[in-house]
Amino acid sequence: MAKHSITLTVNGKSTSAEVEPRVHLGDFLRHQLNLTGTHIGCEHGVCGACTVLVNGDAVRSCLMLAVQADGAEVVTVEGLAAEDGTLTPLQEAFRKHHALQCGFCTPGFLITLTQLLRDRPDIEEEELRRELSGNLCRCTGYSGIVKAALEVAQAFRTREAAR
Amino acid sequence: MTTRFFGAPVQRVEDPTLLKGEGRFTDDIKLPGTLHAAFVRSPFAHARINGIDLEAARAMPGVKAVLAAADLPDVVQGKRILLQVPNPAITEPITQMPLARDEVCFVGEPVAVVLAESRHLAEDAAEMVIVDFEPLPVAADLASAVEPDAATAHAHRSDNIAARIQVGYGDVAAAFQAAAHVVTARIPQHRGTGNPIECRAVLADFNAVHGTLTVWSATQAPHGLKRALGDMLEMADTDLRVIAPDVGGGFGPKLQVYPEEIVVAIASRMLGVPVKWIEDRREHLLTTVQERDQLWTMRMALDAEGKILGISGQMLHDQGAYLPWGVISPYISSVTLPGPYILPAYKLETLVVFTNKVPTTPLRGAGRPQAVFTMERLLDHAADELGLDRAEIRRRNLIPTERMPYAVGLTFRDGKPVVYDSGDYPKCQALAIEKAGWTIFRERQRAAWQQGRYIGQGIANYVEGTGLGPFEGATTQVLPSGRILLRTGSAAQGQGNKTVYAQIAADTFNVDISQVDVEVGDTASIPIGVGAFASRLMVNVGSSISVSSAAVAKKIKQIAAARFEVAEDEIELANGMARVAASQGGSMSFAEIARMTSGMPGFSLPQGIEPGLVSTHYYAPPQATYANGCHVAEVEVDPETGLVKILRYVVVHDCGRMVNPLLVEGQVQGGVAHGIGNALLEKMRFDEQANPVTTSLADYLLPDADNVPEAEIYHVESPSPLNPLGVKGAGEGGTIPAAAAIVSAIEDALRPFGVRIDEAPILPERLCALIDDAAARQAKKEMA
Ligand code: FES
Ligand code: FES
């Protein structure tokens, strides 16, 4: 199959590659760029495990073709922690609240929440649960994930109040 | 250092890598030159294979090989995958062949495999394989498959009875004769499928130089897979290695040995290159084992006070087309029914039935949720008939603590008598109803009904045999670096095993948990192992680590004592040093001792001390240890739409001593979520020809953050007397009684409609139908 050249920025680094038009962004990241942190759980848009940020929006990488990401800025789970390995407050909160067990769904949740807490940093539980219903976790029963996210939201509110 | 890790809510050592996307799941492992497999699968539930044409597929770009059963090596011809758990009750031990040869018996059964440079190319070519299938009559439905003239799931068989199991004790006939009340129920149940977020995955790499085969698989039982591969390929044990790397959830289905794992290994050996197969979600819903239908037809005899006198009945278990793991699930169901109650007489006949569906094997709870559901429905109906409170009838029948240990009178699946080793069942129930506000609920309920809101509470108790043997082992080693390495062959799928194992060793050596490394799931690190299932690892591996670590710690003390010429008990371990207690004098680091004992010229070992700071122990428990608990669910039902919202969920849980409460609560909460799925959402649907119609996660619904509330979890700790740690399994208790408690609550909420629910899951459309039926019955009564 004929390949297309694309250029995109992934986790801050500019990358060019040749891709088949039918390859979805998730497979491209995993297998061509070797960024295996993004996981594939269903390839039909339901589980959310493959979620990455594309131009700042949380997107299911299994529902987007790699060629569509030409020129885009992509952030995967590998791009969250600092260069020196320091975890983000959200990642720290995940650890503290036992928000992951097998960890397979975790990259998707972290990315979804990265956008959500950026756009609505003071989100309340009910709304948060509704937003998170697009990501499936078979292990945790969600409580730890919700607690971790609410703790980050609470920290935001405290910071705002202190201003 | 005086911190004790045992019992503390220690954060997991597994987390940092996983949070950074640095986990190594099977599909993340890349070997140069790997070929990718795509399987050609049966579109029919039952058919004869009259011919296969592979030529067009073989000519496709990027395709290296296309194999049907006849193309496999001679050594595997005609062979079926090793039956993992034989049982004399099995009439014919039919397991799958690597690729079906003459007959396919469920939709999705693999008949050929394409090996190509990418999965895309392999799938393109799989489309080109032409199979001449001749459809055969289908055994599609559990109840009708036992009829004398039923179509058979396997063409050569005269019936569908895969096994017939009788269990029981006491005089059931006398119980029913003496009964003041008899309640009956017909209870169809359906639990659905596993759906870990990581599907199945396997990578095989045959090394032609050494003649060895290394297989990475998202498996719960690497040693079981190794055994099956050795059996199939007739390879020496030492030439095989199976590794379960990071595994993205298991819940039972990843315990089986699958045709795909065997075929990928065979292909790698045939072609001399690595071969990978990653299951997609559609394949998972079609072909990964499920644990599904049971149909219970039961009678319960009670005296005038509501004490149970006896239970008898029949259970049909839908086995699906094959018996990869024997009849474990229905057997466990049959011996779980008595639960935490005094049941003087019991008789159950179980028929395990072949149908043309995907095979069934243990899934989180393993047959227990169905038994608990059945018992708890019977108790609810009995309470209603006697005009008793539903918690009160249970209280009257619970086994009192004084009677522990309590012999039920049955034999468990490990061949040992079912003896509840410890527990306080009345206390658990009392705590649960107190926390749930059970006694004041009726008032709230009446007020809600008056406002047209339908709320209800349901309660369910359970006992779970956990920590099954036969054994599991672990090696503890102090490395020349002074770090402590633990190795066990059992895998882990996210339970946090590395953390709890490290906690136990850290306490024994009196070091920080960060000084301990843990390797799991590699058959090369320990020769024999059983697997991660049946909530058995904490008991078996935890005890093995406790014993092997103690042996190494003792050796360190002996060596240091000889060196400093003091008594062994004068040596204490602290911060990676062995030192003479109460003196500033002699001390040696673990590293020094490890280097000496691993063969340092000029150093002789004290008399009687073997080289190496290493010890392996296999822990073999005398019998299962029994965890228990009580769940109370509070729900609101919308009778217009049939939608159920869980308002509160209270769990009282007793798994003996807890190594790490943070992890235990994670297991319980995750288990409850699975139980909510079983109660309200999860149903694999098939048409009349046994074609699966729920083949994506858009059709098969899993619980999400919006319908799983946070459970309020309370712990009771009744240490097990059967292992050195006093622990019991905690992995499945969250799931086991959940459907029973939730369905009871729904029925309670809908009392004004007079709805009775004897099935799970209860989906909205079905609930609406039951409400309509009840209304119609009511109208008919009023007319008469
Ligand atoms: S893999 Fe993309 S949503 Fe499931
Ligand atoms: S942690 Fe396993 S799927 Fe979420």
Q: Can you summarize this structure?
A:
Helix content of chain A is 36%, strand content 15%. With 163 residues, chain A is an alpha+beta fold.
Folded structure, characterized:
The complex is a heterodimer of chains A (163) and B (784). By secondary structure, chain A is of the alpha+beta class. Helices cover 36% and strands 15% of the residues of chain A. Chain A is built from five helices and five strands. Chain A has a five-stranded mixed beta sheet with strand order 2-1-5-3-4, with helices on both faces. In chain A, helix 2 packs across helix 5. By secondary structure, chain B is of the alpha+beta class. In chain B, 28% of the residues lie in helices and 24% in strands. Chain B contains 19 helices and 28 strands. In chain B, strand 26 and strand 27 (643-654) form a beta hairpin. In chain B, helix 9 runs parallel beside helix 10 (368-386), helix 10 crosses helix 11 and helix 14 (497-509) runs parallel beside helix 15. The longest helix of chain B is centred in the last third of the chain and has 28 residues, at 537-564. Chains A and B meet through helix 2, helix 3, helix 4 and helix 5 of A and helix 1 and helix 17 of B.
Task: Give a topology summary.
The complex is a heterodimer of chains A (163) and B (784).
Chain A: E1 4-10, E2 13-19, H1 25-32, E3 51-54, E4 57-60, E5 73-75, H2 89-96, H3 106-119, H4 125-132, H5 143-162
Parallel strand pairs in A: 1-5
Antiparallel strand pairs in A: 1-2, 3-4, 3-5
Chain B: H1 15-19, E1 35-41, E2 47-53, H2 55-58, E3 63-68, E4 103-104, E5 110-116, H3 119-126, E6 130-135, H4 142-145, E7 161-169, H5 172-178, E8 181-189, E9 201-207, E10 212-217, H6 222-233, E11 240-243, H7 259-271, E12 275-278, H8 281-287, E13 294-302, E14 308-320, H9 328-336, E15 346-354, H10 368-386, H11 390-397, E16 406-411, E17 417-420, H12 425-436, H13 438-450, E18 454-466, E19 472-478, E20 484-488, H14 497-509, E21 516-520, H15 537-564, E22 571-574, E23 577-580, E24 587-589, H16 590-597, E25 614-619, E26 625-638, E27 643-654, H17 661-681, E28 712-715, H18 738-749, H19 764-783
Parallel strand pairs in B: 1-12, 10-11, 14-15, 20-21, 27-28
Antiparallel strand pairs in B: 1-5, 2-4, 2-6, 3-5, 7-15, 8-13, 9-10, 9-12, 13-14, 16-17, 18-26, 19-20, 19-25, 22-23, 23-24, 26-27
Helix pairs in contact in B: 6-7, 9-10, 10-11, 10-18, 14-15, 17-18
The structure holds FE2/S2 (inorganic) cluster (2 copies).
